[in-house]
Structure formats: structure tokens, C-alpha cells
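Translate structure to sequence.
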């Protein structure tokens, strides 16, 4: 059981709370942290959508009264990623987070199949970080800063910065928001006023979603809502038929192309199956909350107005009883002739040859059509065999460059580990493949043990203090290097390094 829990800040990710707990307890091992927090050392973890939260709550100190629902709604990304899900689907994911499901929840909310991806590194606002240090003596990871498409800190109107901390790895370590990773300097805005204006509205809508105070809607009702608003703006007929070309064209006039690129939502006006065309149709495709907010903003509707508006009309269908006006046998013979004259073609190709005929038979004689029309699947191209020797050479070179970059980086030193090498390159765990023989050997050789890393960090701190003209003492080095002032072992090590330097 945990004997203490750090103060939980407003909008702080649970991951951030656990990272600060790990530092508070002086833990070096991720497994030790998981054992302490969940009672189990081997398990899937997630920065955005953590699981087994009931088990976590049971391990909290007796004085801690926080509930699982409070943790999920106020300290995870659940409210954002499930905002446009049905109540049933949202409750299903909520239950998985409470009790665990043994598989990645991220895939269920569209991380893997969707085109809109979360930022793969944790982000922060330099001004928020500076204020946190002044007020609390530490900083933390904010939920809002991790939302896809959020470019600015709404409080300070400054651009957010990326860190080296990975956000989507299943076995990521727990990193605090400290000077090791939050070391960017303030810089001027690089986007024009239109992009800033659009993004501020997006962020305000995102904040409403994160608060979670609204009634869920079913997907058909959401699509019908869009149809109603498009009808009001003249982009749909009275029956709800959408003038798709006009809709797409005006959408692209409203949003600058560069902004859509930043929002991972480029639209090709000439593509018949672009995401915007599919978005306002009733289909089972996963829709990112980011794109919902883009469409709502284009329609001039806030997220709050969307969820509180319950008046829906949608499409109006007119029922017509069609009576076949052709001779059935003649139609059948004509279709058989097309099949006979074009052996080896698949159904789509046959349809192109006999467009009107295909439509008629498919509508009025579907059972016969299914029996006689061949299914010819296109042969899939074989996946080329990977040349592992060549890839090993390429990865080895990348690893060497990454290590050199880590060691020569300005600011507080970063420990050379397999994980930090991967982070520097920007790759995931496939980089640890056993088939990359020489790359693995190199990484094992250059990996720093904790003692060597501390010595390097201490020497850096001494050098920085000397450059600033500060009288170097063990205690000042200890604080400057980020070890805190109470670690006796580190203090003894600093003293030895200082003696060696003076000698």
C-alpha cells in the first residue's frame, strides 16, 4: 500500500502524479513503482488512458478520499477521446479503465486506425513551467497540453513545446516535468493571426469536452445534426441531400491549408473519399473528436451548443415503389453475355462495362446476380523481404548519431539508455529487435550505469557553476544537478568528484 500521495494539481495527468510519487520515494525502477501502486510489477500502462484504477484506489493511503470516477474524469484523457461516443460505448471504456481489460484501450478509441494521432511526445508551456516552479517548487504534465491540435497555452497565449518524453509507448517510464526534459526557451509565435484565432476557438471547445458536463449522443443523431446545420447554411437540400462539392469547397475556404495540416486533417478536394465527405455520412468509421470540433467550428457552433441542442430532423426519405420496366430474361441474358465476353474481371470491372444494366439487376434480381456473377479478388502484392543486415547497418549509424547528440546536448545531461536513444531517434520498440545484432551490441556497450551518469551530471553542474562565477560547494552542486539536498550518498560522490577535479 502507498503511504503517501503527492498533491494532485488541477488538470494534472494521473501519469504525472505517479511520476512525482516515484521521485518523492526515490525509486529508480519502473517495476518497483508499479508494484507499489498496483500491487503488480508487470502490466500494460498508458499515459492517456490508464487501466486497473480500482486496484490503484485500493492501494491509496487511508486518508485519501479521491474516487475512481474523479481520477478518470479529471486526470485522464477519457473525457476528450470518448466525447462523441455513445453512452454505452463510453461506459464500456470507463469499465475497462476501472477494472482493466488486458489489452490496449488506445486502439478502441482510434489511435491505431485513425488518421489523427496523439502527439508522440509530452508537451508543456514554458511559462506555465516557470510559474509552477515559483509557486509549487515543481511542475507537472497538464492534460489540455496533450490534446491533439492544441497548439497554444490558452493562459499565456504561447506555443507549446515538445519534450523527449514518449507518450504512446506501452512500457514507457515515468518522467517528471523537470529541467531534464523541460528546457526550452521562450520563443515568438510562428503562426499568423488567423491560425491563432482558429486554434483558440478549438481549445475553448476542447476545454468544454474535458469538463464532461453534457449528455452523450448516438452517432446517427450526430450525423443528422450536421445535416440540419448544413441545410440551414444552404449546403443541403430540403430533404437532406448534401451538396458535397459546395460543402468541401467552402470548408477549404474557411480553414487555411497550413492549419488543416497542423490539425492532421488535410482535405483533397478532388478525392471522392476524403475524410470530410465520409464524415457526414452514416457509417461505422471512427471519427476523431478533433475533426468533430473542426466541422462544428466551420458551422459556427460551439461544443456546448452542439451537446445541448436536442432538436434533430436529419434526412427526409421519400418512399417510392419501383416497378421493373424491362423484361427479366432479356436483362439476365445481357448480363450473362457481359460476363462471358470478359472472363477474369471482378465485379467492379463488370459494373463499369454494364453500368445501367448492373444497377437494374442488382436492384430487382439480387439473388440471381449473386449466383452467377463471379468474385475475382485482386492478388495482393507480396510484402518485400526485409534485408536485416542492411537495416542493422542503418540503425547502427542512427544509434551512434543519437548517442553523440545526447552526450553533446546543451543543458542538464540525459542518461544514455536504450529508451533515450530510441527517443532521440524518434522510433519505437522495434528498434530493440534481436535481428539488429550490431545495433543491440552497440547500445549495450554505450548504456550508462547510474554511477557513471551521476558523475557526468556532477561534472556538468560543477562546470556550469564555475562559468556563472558561483562559489562551488557540495550542496550547491547537489541542488543544481537536480539530486535534491538530502541524498547523503550523492553528496559523498560529489565530494569525491570535486577532490579529483582539484587534484
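Result:
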Amino acid at each position: 500500500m502507498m503511504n503517501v500521495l503527492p498533491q494532485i494539481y488541477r488538470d494534472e495527468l494521473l501519469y504525472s502524479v505517479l511520476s512525482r510519487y516515484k521521485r518523492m520515494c526515490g525509486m529508480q525502477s519502473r517495476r518497483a513503482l508499479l508494484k507499489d501502486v498496483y500491487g503488480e510489477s508487470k502490466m500494460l500502462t498508458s499515459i492517456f488512458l490508464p487501466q486497473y484504477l480500482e486496484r490503484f484506489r485500493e492501494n491509496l493511503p487511508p486518508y485519501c478520499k479521491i474516487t475512481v470516477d474523479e481520477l478518470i474524469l479529471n486526470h485522464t484523457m477519457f473525457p476528450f477521446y470518448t466525447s462523441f461516443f455513445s453512452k454505452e460505448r463510453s461506459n464500456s471504456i470507463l469499465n475497462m479503465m476501472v477494472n482493466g481489460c488486458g489489452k490496449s484501450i488506445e486502439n478502441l478509441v482510434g489511435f491505431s486506425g485513425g488518421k489523427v494521432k496523439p502527439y508522440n511526445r509530452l508537451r508543456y508551456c514554458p511559462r506555465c513551467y516557470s510559474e509552477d516552479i515559483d509557486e509549487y517548487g515543481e511542475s507537472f504534465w497538464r492534460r489540455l497540453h496533450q490534446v491533439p491540435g492544441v497548439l497554444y497555452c490558452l493562459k499565456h497565449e504561447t506555443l507549446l513545446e515538445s519534450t523527449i518524453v514518449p507518450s504512446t509507448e506501452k512500457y514507457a517510464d515515468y518522467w517528471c516535468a523537470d529541467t531534464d526534459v523541460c528546457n526550452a526557451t521562450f520563443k515568438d509565435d510562428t503562426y499568423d493571426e488567423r491560425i491563432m484565432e482558429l486554434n483558440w476557438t478549438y481549445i475553448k471547445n476542447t476545454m468544454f469536452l474535458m469538463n464532461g458536463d453534457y449528455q452523450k449522443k448516438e452517432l446517427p443523431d450526430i450525423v443528422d445534426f450536421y445535416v440540419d446545420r448544413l441545410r440551414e447554411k444552404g449546403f443541403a437540400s430540403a430533404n437532406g441531400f448534401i451538396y458535397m462539392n459546395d460543402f468541401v469547397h467552402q470548408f477549404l475556404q474557411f480553414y487555411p491549408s497550413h492549419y488543416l495540416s497542423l490539425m492532421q486533417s488535410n482535405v483533397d478536394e478532388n478525392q471522392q473519399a476524403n475524410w470530410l465527405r465520409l464524415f457526414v455520412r452514416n457509417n461505422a468509421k471512427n471519427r476523431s473528436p478533433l475533426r468533430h470540433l473542426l466541422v462544428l467550428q466551420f458551422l459556427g457552433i460551439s461544443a456546448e451548443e452542439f451537446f445541448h441542442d436536442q432538436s434533430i430532423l436529419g434526412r427526409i426519405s421519400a418512399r417510392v415503389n419501383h416497378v421493373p420496366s424491362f423484361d427479366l430474361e432479356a436483362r439476365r441474358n445481357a448480363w450473362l453475355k457481359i460476363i462471358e465476353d470478359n472472363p477474369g474481371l471482378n465485379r467492379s470491372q463488370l459494373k463499369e462495362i454494364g453500368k445501367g444494366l448492373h444497377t437494374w439487376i442488382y436492384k430487382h434480381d439480387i439473388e440471381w446476380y449473386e449466383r452467377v456473377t463471379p468474385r475475382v479478388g485482386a492478388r495482393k502484392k507480396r510484402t518485400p523481404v526485409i534485408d536485416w543486415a542492411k537495416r542493422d547497418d542503418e540503425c547502427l549509424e542512427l544509434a551512434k548519431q543519437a548517442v553523440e547528440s545526447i552526450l553533446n546536448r546543451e543543458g542538464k545531461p540525459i542518461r544514455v539508455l536504450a529508451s533515450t536513444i530510441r527517443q532521440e531517434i524518434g522510433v519505437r520498440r522495434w528498434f530493440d529487435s534481436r535481428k539488429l545484432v550490431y545495433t543491440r551490441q552497440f547500445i549495450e556497450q554505450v548504456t550508462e550505469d547510474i554511477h557513471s551518469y551521476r558523475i557526468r551530471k556532477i561534472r556538468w553542474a560543477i562546470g556550469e557553476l564555475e562559468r556563472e562565477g558561483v562559489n562551488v560547494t557540495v550542496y550547491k552542486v547537489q541542488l543544481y544537478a537536480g539530486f535534491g539536498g538530502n541524498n547523503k550518498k550523492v553528496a559523498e560522490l560529489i565530494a569525491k568528484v570535486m577532490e579529483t577535479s582539484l587534484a
